[in-house]
Amino acid sequence: MNQKRFFSIVRYQLHDFKKSAMIMYSCVYFLFIVSCIDHNTLPSDKHVTLNGMELVSMITLLVIGLVSFKENFNFFSINGISRRTQFFSTLFFFGILCAIFALIDTLNVAVFPHISNYTPLFLLLYQPAFQGFGPAAYFLMLVTNFLLLWVVYIFISMVGLFITTLYYRMNRGMKIAVSVGVPVILVNGINLLDAYLLHGKLMQWITQALCAVWGLSGGCHPFVAIGSHVLLACCFSALTFLLARKAVVKK
Amino acid sequence: MSRIEISHLTKTFGKTKALTDVSLEFESGHIYGLLGRNGAGKTTLLNLITGRLFPDSGEITVDGEPVLENDRALSKIYCMTEGSKYPDRMRVVDALSWSAEFYPNFGGKYARSLCKKFDLNEFQKIGGLSTGYTSIFKLIIALACGSEFVLLDEPVLGLDANHRELFYRELIENFSSSQRCFILSTHLIEEAATLIDRIIIVKNGTILLNEDAQDILESGCTVSGPADLVDRYVQGKKLIGSDKLGGLKSAYLMEPCTHVPDGLTVGTLDLQKLFIQLTNA
User: Fold this and answer.
1) Over the stretch A73-90, which tens digit does the pLDDT of each residue have?
2) Nearest to B102 among A5, A71, A74 (CB)
3) Which of A52, A63, B173, B178 lies at 20 to 30 Å from A171 by C-alpha?
4) How far apart are CA A122 and CA A127, in angstroms?
5) Helix, strand or coil for residue A206?
6) How many contacts (CB atoms, under 8 Å) link A and B?
7) A17, A79, A84: best mutation site toward chain B, by most B Cβ within 10 Å?
8) Does A81 contact chain B (CB < 8 Å)?
9) pLDDT at residue A207 greater than cutoff 70
10) Residues of chain B whose C-beta is under 8 A from some C-beta in A?
């Protein structure tokens, strides 16, 4: 793997998505500022609360993942870059981008709860795990928050990248079948199966699985969530690599 | 001397055989003309050379290294495709900068001088360029990329006569100074005939002809004059085609013209006529 080309791809992608990230954070900070003004000017019973702004980063990263294959694959291919180098540099790019997002969102966690009515996603889920341990726990909470956000963001961007790569590899018929079939199965199929055959057990299993993935079954275990998201991100990136390594440039 | 070696290359798309057992070599220091009718397999061959498609069988190497998934081998090749694969929102100047990132020998100053010569606005977005200027933009990158092998698929698509002339001049100058390998896939055979020194004709996915341009053109001739005289002269000779205008006729022979009677004029073989004759059958 040519190192110069590898890092050129990373820089290209960081440059490409810089504007989107800046627009997203401008909106987020606009909301934070409004929330701060509101917190410091209105009576306490009329405050607007702001929760889980990390979801905005997650949606942005999902979208970035979704738009990261076709155009880049064409552009890098005409510049004589192998699929393997393209894939691993894209992985590296997402590692950096997600770390930046996680760092900014962790700084927000450190600052905004003190000056506005903001509760971060991490505290909504895992606050009991860090209660009663003093200042050291606060620092540990911030580090854990960063690590969890980082791996969750990577997982989400990998899901986006996987979906777009899968669509690129499919022919028109398959695209229509998947675009119609998957929502029908998710919305109706699962509900019907659960209601008539499994008598509510399926939803119970799904809920239990989600709780297990997020480390919320039998207590608050953020490091379980970190581990499970690392595994999930690895699975999706491996699947994406299998799809991308045989992709061809289309007309 | 750098070399691309293609051995026993086969590629099918569904039931269509695009290339069948193709073996070829391209060396630096030559301008190849890759000629063929629509659907002959020229673009497929170029896409296989650059690893954009996977062959069903066969191998392509650059200086002995397999080209597939090999960054070092791929960095020695630049292929200008018919369609634009650059992001529409990217500006020309940014595309030049990024090309310099990916091709270490990219001539940035040379590219900018070409932009001036072709009147290409560097600050325009690629998506906003006309067909002709999109071709010019891609040609500029191809000429400036510094790669040892430059593959040009329909390079003059949408270019007016002035720009075509300018491109041919720049191509010759670039070739003279760099002695790289250019592979021109084009339908404008008459224009390309003055540039190429090796001719490769592809027909139905196979290589019909792979010869030195000078040799092939000198192995035949064109004889012109009054129709009856021409008809009498070509009797029993390897005739590959003829044109008639009023009482005058031009016949294209695949053998040297010797003992030509008075009243007839002899010229070199016309590449386009040879191509039509070979690919029509």
Assistant:
1) 999 999 999 999 999 999
2) A5
3) A63
4) 7
5) helix
6) 65
7) A79
8) yes
9) yes
10) 47, 50-54, 69-72, 74-79, 81, 83, 85-87, 98-99, 101-104, 147
Asked whether the predicted pLDDT for residue A1 surpasses 80, the reply is no
A157 CA: distance to closest CA in chain B (Å): 21
The single residue listed with the structure tokens 């994406």 is A240
Distances (CA, A) of B99 to A79, A198, B105, B218: 7, 58, 10, 41
State the pLDDT at residue B281: 64
SS3 A73: helix
Residues ≥6 apart with Cβ < 8 Å to B118: B136, B140, B163, B166
Q: Go through the domains of chain B in sequence order and give each one's CATH number.
A: 3-212 (3.40.50.300), 219-280 (no CATH)
Q: CB neighbours (10 Å) of residue A239?
A: 16
| A208: its two tokens | 């239990």
A83 touches chain B (CB under 8 A): yes
Residues with pLDDT less than 70, chain B: 281
A245 to chain B, closest Cα gap in Å? 9
Out of A40-44, A141-145, B26-30, least confident range:
A40-44
Q: Where are the domains of chain A?
A: 3-169+200-244
CB contact set of B261 (below 8 Å; sequence gap of 6+) = B229, B233
Say if A251 is an interface residue toward chain B (CB within 8 Å). yes
Question: Which pLDDT score is estimated for B270?
Answer: 84
A1 touches chain B (CB under 8 A): yes
Residues from chain A that touch B149, judged by Cβ atoms under 8 A, are none
Cα distances from A79 to residues B6, B7, B102, B149, in angstroms, run 21, 24, 6, 13
pLDDT score recorded for residue A17: 92
B172's CB contacts (< 8 A; 6+ apart) are B195
Chain A nearest-CA distance from B16, in A, is 17
- The answer on pLDDT for A200 being more than 90 is no
How much is the pTM? 0.90
Count of residues in chain A: 251
The residues, ordered by sequence, that sit 6+ positions from A236 with a Cβ below 8 Å of its Cβ are A155, A158, A159, A161, A162
User: What is the per-residue pLDDT for B82?
Assistant: 83
Q: How far is B274 from chain A (nearest CA, A)?
A: 31
**3-class DSSP assignment, residue A122:** helix
Mutate to test the interface with A, among B102, B134, B139, B148 (most CBs of A within 10 A): B102
- Kindly report the nearest CA distance between residue A61 and chain B, in angstroms: 20
